Amino acid sequence: MVLTPDRPAALPGRLEDQWKAKLNANTVTIIAGSPEETSLDVAHDLAVVLNGDDLRVLPIVGLGGAQNIRDVLYLRGVDVGITSTQMLRYFASTGELTADLDQRLNYITRLYPEEMHVIASRNIKSLQDLAGKKVNFSEAGSSTQITSRDVFGLLSVDVQEVNMNQSDAIVAVKNGEIAATVFFSGKPSGALSHVAASDNLHLLEIPYTRTLENVYLPAQLEHALYPNLVDDGQSIQTIAIDSVLITNNWQPSSERYRRVAKFVENLFAHFADLQKQPRHPKWKEVDFSRELPGWQRFPAARELLQQAKFDQFLAMRQGGPQATPADKQRLFKEFLEWSQTEAKKH
Questions:
Q1: DSSP code of residue 179
Q2: The domain that contains 157 carries what CATH number?
Q3: I need a surface site. Which of 64, 85, 120, 207 has the fewest CB within 10 A?
Q4: CA 280 → CA 1, 114, 184, 274, distances in Å?
Q5: What is the distance between the alpha carbons of residues 121 and 170, in angstroms, rounded to a whole number?
Q6: Largest CA distance in the chain
Q7: Whole-angstrom Cα distance, residue 12 to residue 37?
Q8: Are 264 and 108 in contact (CB under 8 A)?
Q9: For 250-268, what is each residue's pLDDT tens digit?
Q10: Cβ-based neighbours of 297, under 8 Å, separated by 6 or more
Q11: How much is the pTM?
Q12: CA distance 136 to 123
């Protein structure tokens, strides 16, 4: 029989079963954002660095942080997702997805800050100038929409909300069809890489008022990252929210837990590689030790972090990692006390 691309040779049943088992045994899917968002670059970095004989990471183009929570909870085949701390707070407070969201989801780690970008024409000088004008809050139901509504509400700036993707929105701002577009993304954002100096656009400052302090982080956007949107020698004050890596609260005895645990183990083991070029610079802002109050950390991640802290503690004490089992038992009690003291510092 002549083999053609649409008529491959049939594999023997046993060999086919072996391939199916091998390909599915250690594959973890991670749902991120659109090609406009930093989260997809980060998910791609995870695939490049972590993929090997014992693990395969499959990034999925998603619809943003709000939908990613829904997908991790309910979409068949999704193991891990990237969202924001703000979206976790939002859905936990509304109960829209489930009344016990903090029990249904685990976080693996907080990731990096996602900065708020507001792009407008040069004749718009401040956020207050947008009052009454058309402003894009990204797609309906997106995390940018939900968060933008919150920020503009807290700052008492009432605008005419429109909803479109960022590529279309930037064109609409250039053409004068809308006054500005808003989106949250880790800097530098690829969505702004095509903005030219001749487009006559710039980034607006977000004042860090007391009304924002309890939820948002202070941040800035620099000329070096956005030379066509920030004047030379200047930086723009803005706010940020933390992104976070989440998964389901899988049963420890389940196959899904085992696969996600393997992913976490590889993530911790190769973290230094993720911080090297040409990986996204946001990896340098990730700190695995940061907690997310009110949420449970995925047990495998918690155990690895605890072990890393214990190793650090041992290195600080006489005997170090070579301490005897009896010494380690004594030191572990001291470690628990030390951990509680360190936690209070953060």
A1: S
A2: 3.40.190.10
A3: 207
A4: 49, 13, 16, 8
A5: 10
A6: 75
A7: 43
A8: yes
A9: 999 999 999 999 999 999 9
A10: 106, 107, 108, 109, 291, 305
A11: 0.84
A12: 17
Mode of pairing for the β-strands spanning 235-248 and 217-222? antiparallel
Q: Rounded to an integer, what distance in angstroms lies between the CA atom of residue 238 and that of residue 63?
A: 24
- Assigned domain for 315 exists: yes
43 has a pLDDT exceeding 50: yes
Q: Is there a single domain that holds both residue 141 and residue 289?
A: no
Q: What are phi and psi of 124, to 5 degrees?
A: -90, 115
Q: pLDDT tens digits, residue range 96-146?
A: 999 999 999 999 999 999 999 999 999 999 999 999 999 999 999 899 999
Q: Which two tokens stand for residue 65?
A: 């942080």
Distances (CA, A) of 294 to 7, 101, 103, 262, 342: 54, 11, 10, 25, 18
Looking up tokens 């004068």 gives 176
Q: Is the same domain home to 121 and 96?
A: no
Structural domain span for residue 123: 114-242
**Whose structure tokens read 């997310």?**
292
Q: Do 167 and 234 belong together in one domain?
A: yes
Does 223 share its domain with 206? yes
**Region at 233 (left for phi over 0; alpha for psi -120 to 50; beta for the rest):** left
Tens digit of each residue's pLDDT (9 = 90 or more) over 169-194: 999 999 999 999 999 999 998 889 88
| DSSP labels, 274-290 | HTSTTS-GGGGG--TT-
The structure tokens listed for 284 are 């340098």
Q: What is the pLDDT of residue 25?
A: 82
Give the DSSP letter string of 186-217. Answer: PSSPGGGTT--GGG-EEEPP----HHHHTT-E
Mapped onto helix, strand or coil, the DSSP state of residue 293 is: coil
- Shared domain check, 251 and 107: yes
